[in-house]
Here is the input.
Amino acid sequence: MKIKAAVVEKQNADFEIKDDVELAEMGPDDIQVHMVASGICHSDEALRIGDAVIDYPIVLGHEGSGIVEKVGPEVTQFQPGDHVVLSFYACGNCKSCLKGIPTQCENYAQNNLSGVRPDGSSHFTENGHHVADMFDQSSFTTTTVVRERNAVKVPKDMDLRTLGPLGCGYVTGSGTVLNTLKPKPGDTIAVFGTGAVGLAA
Here is the structure.
């Protein structure tokens, strides 16, 4: 299906809104999400300007929130109409995932920064040419397809416009404090900066 997406054509290029991007067909464990909002993160900017190795053109975005439109036949946790926040993909099977540390997933780079779907196919194309994705989701779109493990269901009475950063910024801030610093009662820490990451910290 044709969607609208913010595409970065080459390193350090501006975002270009295009309405002729083709979205890949859903797989059995995929959900199709109508995007409502997305945060923008330093990681998006780092990939745009080329601080990390990635393919171009690319559709960025990894702090999305939206509404489920369709689900694949193997999806068990979601149904059309559910509200979701998108995040990175963790395999759930490696040592780190089994220890409850999905942010250290041993397959993180392959699943999130390869620019392609798990089977090596394109998530997006334009005029038949490959367009890379980010975190197997790319939330700078009108509609995207993600694997079931990329999404977290949220209450429908919460404003999706404020929830997108939960997928990265809030996880990063709170995770840094709770999982790395591990403060104990009576400890003191200082947080500099009160964006999404700082507020979560």
Observations:
- The mean pLDDT is 93.
